[in-house]
Amino acid sequence: MFLVYLHIMTGREIYNKLSQRDYSGSDQDQYAQLLYTIHFHAQANDELDAFYSFLESSERLNKKLSVSDFVLEEIFMSSIELV
After folding, report:
1. Contacts for 34-43 with beta carbons within 8 Å, 24 or more apart?
2. Angle, alpha carbons 43-62-26 (nearest 5°)
3. Which residue of 3, 33, 58, 80 is 20 to 30 Å from 44, comparing CA positions?
4. What is the pLDDT of residues 44-83, one digit of tens each?
């Protein structure tokens, strides 16, 4: 009998994994930069819990975060969508 342990990553773990940049300009590097930027704004706007929740949803649905609207150079969680 085999026991399979499935670890479901938290939003913070997903962020730490996906936000590692390699500065190559690749799609993965650009997404890491986007996540870093969204994280910065979420922290400044006291929306980190919502950010981590979005990341968990995106991981579960195999989607990525995208910013639908930049308002006055601020990113709010209400402008984040899954694509």
Report:
1. 34/65, 34/66, 34/67, 35/65, 37/75, 38/65, 38/67, 38/75, 38/80, 39/15, 41/74, 41/75, 41/76, 42/75, 42/77
2. 70
3. 58
4. 999 999 999 999 999 999 999 998 876 657 888 888 899 9
What's the one-letter identity of residue 44? Answer: A
* pLDDT score of 74: 83
Burial zone of 2 (CB within 10 Å; 0-12 exposed, 13-18 middle, 19+ buried): exposed
What letters, b where the CB count within 10 A reaches 16 and e where it falls short, cover 5-23?
A: eeeeeebeebbeebbeeee
Cross-strand pairs, 65: 82
Predicted confidence (pLDDT) per residue in 9-48, tens digit: 899 999 999 999 999 999 999 999 999 999 999 999 999 9
